[in-house]
Write a structure and sequence with these properties.
By secondary structure, this protein is of the alpha+beta class. The chain has helices at about 5-30, 80, 140-155, 160-170, 195-220, 225-245, 250-255, 260-265, and strands at about 35-40, 50-55, 60-75, 90-105, 110-120, 125-135, 175, 180, 185-190.
Length: about 280
């Protein structure tokens, strides 16, 4: 399959998924609040693509949620080339993806994160993941979440779940705190063996994320919470911010390749606390 067709298929899917997830979120908010939509360009002097970030704040369910789409191209800075497969000899790249971060009003509902991307240098590959970060662990919720992910992975390859869960546990870890960010999930990168199969997995992952966040939120959105629960959520959000600013690959990639700063940092919570 021609590479340009692959790019179109991937970016069109990410844009379609952005619309679908935003529709779900506004439905949960009973359509009483809307996303603020902002279009941006990577380079206003050259045509190097851009994207649209959408942020909804101060809803009844969501404190803050961002759903970002991007499709950009250009050249990597020299200091960044050596870290990217296929970019050592040729700095040109193309990348598209979707990123979602949800910070909830009710502290009994976990923060949730999802992203998938397709990157092309002299190589091309998919990457992405999803994970859940509760303030207080709900063992049954954790069990159902991981069972859903395992079932999704098994539809494609029975080795995926164990491998991608391990990768996620290793990735979403705060070394300076010696603690995981949340209850894990799945994470993968450099997925490039078979475009058709990999793209099918990426699409299934997006649909599964829709199922997961709708199920978790609808189950808990009317549950009562206390000031103690909220304080714990604020402290956990501080940990979330630490990870995203210190270790997150997507944050570093976006900032070092001329991405939109507001869109990149939309993952940060609206309020957080440190002891």
């Amino acid at each position: 399959m021609n590479l340009e067709i692959k790019k179109d298929l991937a970016s069109n899917w990410f844009k379609t998924l952005q619309d679908a997830i935003c529709d779900d979120i506004q439905s949960l908010e009973k359509n009483k609040i809307e996303f603020k939509k902002t279009n941006w360009s990577r380079n206003y002097k050259k045509n190097e693509g851009g994207g649209e970030y959408r942020i909804l704040r101060n809803g009844k369910i969501f404190d803050k949620v961002g759903v970002n789409f991007s499709m950009v191209h250009g050249k990597f800075p020299k200091k960044f080339q050596k870290n990217i497969p296929g970019a050592q000899k040729d700095s040109r790249f193309w990348a598209s993806g979707i990123s979602v971060v949800m910070h909830m009003k009710n502290p009994l509902i976990p923060a949730m994160h999802f992203n998938t991307r397709y990157i092309c240098t002299t190589h091309s590959w998919f990457g992405g993941g999803m994970d859940v970060t509760p303030s207080k662990i709900d063992l049954n919720e954790k069990k159902v979440f991981h069972k859903t992910l395992k079932n999704m992975c098994n539809r494609h390859n029975k080795s995926y779940y164990k491998k991608y869960k391990k990768w996620c546990d290793k990735y979403f870890y705060l070394p300076h705190r010696k603690e995981p960010r949340g209850i894990g999930g799945i994470f993968f990168d450099y997925k490039k063996k078979n475009f058709e199969k990999d793209f099918k997995f990426v699409r299934d992952m997006g649909i599964t994320f829709q199922l997961i966040f709708n199920t978790i939120i609808r189950k808990k959105m009317n549950k009562k919470w206390t000031k103690k629960d909220k304080d714990l959520q604020y402290i956990k959000r501080g940990r979330y911010a630490e990870f995203n600013l210190l270790y997150d690959r997507g944050t570093k990639f976006g900032l070092q390749t001329g991405g939109n700063v507001e869109g990149i940092l939309m993952s940060l919570p609206p309020l957080a606390k440190w002891k």
